[in-house]
Backbone:
């Protein structure tokens, strides 16, 4: 099976491991707000809201955002990960997604997940406000839901 042993040595490994360790492999999905398909592959989690990519203007038209929010609302998505310095672009271009994010999630914390090319607060982890974490990840001190 695919797992951390298959991952190339690289910057995405700790982030993918966090998602893999802290979400349920059967029901949970994750939303990342930049182009990072390897996150879904190596964490073995589906992408949420029918959106594998939200960077730039991709799928930002209102009808696509409405469809994505409807799908997102039906899915189990305990974690959303945002590149902190790109949040403003996401907020502006994907305003309906951002509204849903702010209504149902809260910022759990910021970290760089060990990526030397990111500052200490390079990634913002948002978690569902109606789900209680079951533990805290020992390395990243972020909430876990599995």
Residues:
């Amino acid at each position: 099976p695919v797992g951390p042993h298959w991952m190339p040595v690289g910057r995405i490994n700790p982030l993918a491991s966090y998602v893999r360790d802290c979400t349920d492999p059967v029901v949970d999905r994750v939303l990342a707000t930049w182009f990072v398909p390897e996150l879904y592959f190596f964490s073995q989690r589906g992408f949420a809201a029918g959106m594998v990519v939200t960077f730039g203007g991709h799928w930002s038209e209102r009808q696509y955002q409405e469809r994505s929010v409807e799908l997102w609302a039906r899915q189990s998505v305990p974690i959303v990960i945002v590149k902190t310095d790109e949040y403003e672009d996401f907020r502006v271009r994907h305003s309906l997604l951002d509204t849903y994010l702010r209504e149902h999630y809260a910022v759990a914390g910021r970290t760089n997940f060990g990526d030397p090319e990111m500052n200490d607060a390079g990634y913002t982890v948002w978690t569902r406000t109606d789900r209680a974490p079951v533990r805290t990840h020992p390395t990243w001190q972020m909430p876990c839901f599995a």
Summary: The mean pLDDT is 90. The helical segments are 13-22, 37-43, 62-74, 87-93, 95-104.
